[in-house]
Amino acid sequence: MFIDLLIMLVMAYGFGFLYYGLYRNISARVHGRFGPSLAQSFYDSIKLFTKDTSTDFGWMFFAGPIIMASGAILTVLFIPYFNHGERLVGLSPYGNLIVVLYFMVLGPLGNALGVGSHGNPFGAMGITRGLTRLLGLEMPFYIAVVGLMIANESADIGTIMANQAETYNIIAHPLLFIAAFISFLGFLGKSPFDVVGAPQEVYSGPAVEFGGKFLALALSQSAIFSFAKLLLMVDLFLGGADSLWDLILKTFVLFVASVFVGNVYGRFTTAQSVDFLLKVPTVIAIVGLLFV
Amino acid sequence: MFNFEITALGNMFFGLTVLVFVSLFFVPNKHRSVTLYSLLFASLACIFYASDLITLFIGWEIMGWSSYFLIAKTADKQTLQKYIVFNIGGAFTLLGAIILIYGACGSFVYSELDFSAVPSGQVTAITILLLLTLFVKSGIMPFHYWVVDSYSQSNDLFSAVLSAIISKTGVFAFILIFFQIITVQYLQTPILEVVAWLGVLTSIIATFKAINEDEAKRLLAYSSIAQVGYIVTILSIMGSLSLEAALYHTVIHTFVKLLLFINVAAIIYVSKQHRFSTLGGLLYKYPLNFILLVVGIISLAGMPPLGGFSSKFLIYTALLEEHKGLLLAAVLFSSASAFLYCYKLVYGIYLGQPTNPKTEAYPRIPLRFYVPQILGAVILITLGTIPGVIVPMFNGILGSVGFEPVLYRGVFVLGSDFASFNGGVVIGAFGLIFVLILLFFVRLKNRSVKPKDRLDISYCGEVPRADVNLHYGYGMGRELSRIGLIKMILSRSSHALWQRVSTLFGDLSGITQKLYTLSAQNMGLVIFAFFTILLYMGVK
């Protein structure tokens, strides 16, 4: 059990950073650059863990990123990796889809507390942008998930995977998939919904006071969290994976799709992105729900 | 007359009342009035343990009046007028319903009421009258008009009572009347559908209004309206699981609001400030109060691993089981938006920069303020770890109102056949991961220095001046008004509606008034008309 949990965590960390490296490479090619080597993300992470941040704003500043990382790790441990239910199911028998959805927001709240504690208004501004965007992101995603739970008469991820043995949900419920995928782009922090950090435009965002080991923790949790989200999408819409290669293939396809969309679009403002998310994908999701 | 009966349902609500009142007894209170609080307490006992409608009505009236005098200690005239008009209206509809029930069933005693021979039109009329009463007490929109002002202008302690207990009397009466007395087979489904949507629309609108508030107690008042909105929505599903979910959420909300209102009361007590724009940066001054508030808001937002998640989970599964997808989507929308006001509450008071130079001089928070807060926090943490521990109580209530219990009888596990989760594993895993990362982190290099002062921040390469406002508390949520749908919600208010109703009543009373101030000739005419009518009726 504990070995399984450890393997799940290491895999999430490894694949998370590998995909992040690939994202940097693919984006660089789209921009006409070469980009850093694949291992650069790992180097960055390990290097930053050995450095300290310059200013210490007290215990809440310390605890915030740790709560965020705990939320991300907890999320990945509650999502089964394979659909045969034998290995790497983690803690999923003790939870269900609703629990996982809520874990996904536990991290951002911890982060918000940490960011608020240092008193930099630019940090709080980023957090407000993030929470406002979350409002838009959650709507289509939740409706899509509600549709799946009603269609499968269960909130158990394993059951939803098992019911896709013949037809994947992406075929059976295409509208729900489209809505969830648009939200998923935002959850991954890809354009056009990358309003939270928005580093090129304004000097603001949640990470404004965090450096060194805090930044390393933020980066690592973001890599783990991204993999958890990919995994969740694969489990819910692509029937889960039955082998390691299947897992890599399916997560990779989803990841590449998200990178391509992200590289084509510019960035929405916060209000625009929530407006768009509440109009287009939410309506698609509601129509999909009515079909269920 | 005055029949009482000890029931499982009454025990639960009265138990909550006792815990809240006893814990509030410790808190310092400028406007302490033993008589009024005793009267209120007695009236609540009367409501929860009544076994006939007249006793219930008497309790309801005394509750309304004693609350009126308690609010009157601090509130202004307009607030009091709103309170009294709405609550008298609610009491009248209750009285009307009781008279109709007596006319139809020939009894006031709960156990003797039988609706099998009552025409459905009459049952519908009774249902609507009763719903109006409950809507007023629970603040379902548009009958919430009195709620926010009364909550925010009451004495800080009484706000907690209003939100934690008095708003629940509506919930209690809903369960009593529609689950036990009239029962689901005589109710009209379309009415229940309307109630469900009213509840969820209330929670969505109240949530956005809360995000837009600058005053802590008004934010909490709107949040109360939203949370009770969920309870009403889930009750109108009228199933076993939905009743258990509503009961669970009632328990959670009682303790969350007790904790949060007293937390805010403590801050108002020491700082004399109640607006986010004049608070902020109090985290390291009052760390225990901050931690308790965080426990409260995590539960209010319904996040694992605390108790709030347990009740939210049951609400979602109850709606899923009944295939109420759209309703659930609306509940989720409101629930997701609630994160924003939860964060605003904690940020506005404790995080960010202090807006007041006198912050350092604020006194210590008296220890007595912690009694209700710690009670609330302990219960919320316990219900997160062992969420199944109060299920036997709910199952008992379901049995007493004739429903089949559906929740598992586990301690760590909460759920039904549809879905379940293990609270112990969730909180254990979270705690373990948190501690492991913390230990790893402490082992890493620690050479960072403390900031020189609060202005020592990364600020576009400059040092901000002391007179620049760096607190983002009250501006939070302002950008929401740029989003079409939310702008529409925020710009609407029920004020215009009630203004129109008030004008209408003014006109009607004008006509009635004319009857009393007629001249002698006209009076003669009225008497003539009156006798003509009598004569006509006699001939007929």
For the structure shown, list the relevant keywords.
heterodimer; A: 70% helix; 0% strand; B: mainly alpha; 3 domains; two-stranded antiparallel ribbon; 19 helices; globular
Quick gist of this model?
Helix content of chain A is 70%, strand content 0%. By secondary structure, chain A is mainly alpha-helical. In chain A, helix 4 runs antiparallel to helix 5 (121-152).
Structure description:
The complex is a heterodimer of chains A (292) and B (540). Chain A is built from eleven helices and no strands. The longest helix of chain A has 32 residues, at 121-152. In chain A, helix 4 (97-117) runs antiparallel to helix 5 (121-152). Chain A has one domain (2-291). The two termini of chain A are 37 Å apart. Chain A is an all-alpha fold and 292 residues long. In chain A, 59% of the residues are buried. Chain B is 67% helix and 1% strand. Chain B is globular, with a radius of gyration of 26 Å. Chain B has three domains: 1-186, no CATH class; 188-446 and 467-493, no CATH class; 497-539, no CATH class. In chain B, helix 7 (156-181) runs parallel beside helix 9. Chain B is built from 19 helices and two strands. In chain B, a hairpin with a 4-residue loop joins strand 1 and strand 2. The two termini of chain B are 39 Å apart. Chain B has 540 residues and is mostly helical. In chain B, strands 1-2 form a two-stranded antiparallel ribbon. Chains A and B meet through helix 3, helix 4, helix 5, helix 9 and helix 11 of A and helix 11, helix 12, helix 13, strand 2 and helix 16 of B.
